[in-house]
Write a structure and sequence with these properties.
The protein is α+β, with helices and mostly antiparallel strands. The chain is built from three helices and seven strands. A seven-stranded antiparallel sheet has the order 1-2-3-5-6-7-4. Strand 6 and strand 7 form a beta hairpin.
């Protein structure tokens, strides 16, 4: 059985809101292990007008942010709700980030993410980003679960 969640359900797991909530769906969820996040890159996305006028590209740093949001949603979805109440997931480090092809508006960016390991509140992930089967980016990153103030 594959588990998927929509944007409304993602909003219940993450503190991010428009325009910074980048992921639209989380599909093929394997509890605390892997998922595919969907980012609908639109021609009216907040960064398009200025990055770059006449030839818009999704900034690489936002692809990394989307990776982080997908990982946070995967983790929050998988752990006990009472454990996650009043918590946030913060990015700690980004390693081996590679941007292979530009991500342009009017595409569906698919982020395949996987939790590599966890040790207490620290988690390590890896991910690959694709548009129509073409690899656009990949990275590894670490995040920690902290108390919300």
């Amino acid at each position: 059985m594959t588990i998927s969640i929509n944007k409304k359900q993602i909003e219940e797991l993450l503190p991010h809101r428009e325009p910074m909530l980048l992921i639209d769906e989380l599909l093929n969820i394997k509890k605390l292990f892997s998922a595919t996040a969907i980012v609908n890159v639109k021609k009216d996305s907040f960064y398009v007008q200025g990055h770059f006028p006449g030839q818009p590209v999704m900034p690489g740093v936002l692809i990394v942010e989307a990776f982080g949001q997908a990982a946070a949603a995967l983790t929050a979805h998988g752990i006990d709700r009472s454990t996650y109440e009043n918590k946030l997931v913060f990015l700690m480090s980004v390693e081996k980030a590679r941007f292979r092809n530009p991500v342009i508006p009017n595409c569906k960016l698919e982020l395949n993410i996987e939790a590599i390991r966890s040790h207490g509140r620290v988690w390590k992930y890896k991910g690959e980003a694709y548009v129509e089967g073409k690899k656009m980016a990949d990275a590894q990153w670490s995040a920690t679960i902290v108390d919300r103030k």
